[in-house]
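ok trying again, last paste got cut off:
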Amino acid sequence: MVERSERRKRKKVWGVIVGGTFALLFASISASFFSGVFPFEKSRANPTEGAGLVTPGDETRVSSETPSSHLVPLEDALRVKGIYVTLDSAGTPSRFASIIKFVREHEGLNALVIDVKDNSGRVPCPPPEGVPSKPCAYRHFPGLIQVLKREGYYLIARVVAFQDPYMAALKPDHAIRRSDGSLWRDRDGRLWLNPYDKRNWEFVKNIALWAQEMGFDEIQLDYVRFPDSAMGLEKSGVLMPGSENFSSRSQAIVEFLKYMKEALHGKAYLSADVFGFVTIAKDDMGIGQKIEDIASAVDFISPMVYPSHYYNPGIYGLAVPEADPYRVVSKAIDEAIQRTEGLGARIRPWLQDFSLRIRYGPKEVQDQINAVLEHGVDTFLLWNPANTYTEGVRYVREISKNK
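nice, full thing came through this time. structure:
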């Protein structure tokens, strides 16, 4: 059972991450917060063996001893309850220590979703040679992942697929472009890689394999879609070479996901982060995301069922959907289960732990969790862009008063 009360308390000395003052801080924090943390009943590596040393000049090396090629048992993956962690949170010792402390203190939490390629195109540290990137200076990152893995955390690498301003500017011929060759921007001014271009598939695959080699158990692809402001672009003179090879945007996205799943086969699970509205829409919404198609190509599908995003009055018969998180999530999960039954993928929703128009506190977050658990889905993820998660929430089942 994945119970925090069953964690075995073991003292453990982990390898010093070298790098001056930063390393000393990180070593101190790790000694305080990583010792004796075993979210899963059976750790996949012997916590008493190997210090996971990251030696000077070799900070980004992934140890060949790391059991990164072995899939976590599906029964464990189906009980994952995690929170999102940005690159900068993972790279800042004091910030990351507070996140680990939060996870340790809340029964049921056992997983971390950590950025490996974020919305700006950044990666934590230099990737393998030949993989273009915009690296941060967090050279301790691979060592950190190995420590977390040995401690039994389920680790999900968030990889932003096609919304990538860095790569689009670096390789304009890989990007969505205007007819004059200039870079096309969506209504928010963002640059996008061309999802039809298989060179971009290979780029995302190489980032995913790098994450898997570091020790991540699962790769979650975000922005695995076309821009939501790109309706009809193929017929408007905008350049997206390769569109002629696919019958629809949905087919392009599904073929990409199948390509990714084959690359990760036997190494890591594959999941897709999708719009919450996929549970309602009958088509691909113009972005290439159709729930039945995606569910046939991945291991886990994570609809973002954030109540704040159901802003149209009348959705699910609710005057203000955002004000009724229990019913919004309950309806969305019910639809997701029905529409994906027998297609292969398991549902693991993203839930809202942030405020938009209505302030969300413990009750609103708890209502969403209860709605998921009461549908027999024992796995979910919480999103807060600032990584500041709500106290006073239980991550195990409670009977909701909102039925």
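cool. The first strand starts at residue 81 and ends at 85. The mean pLDDT is 85.
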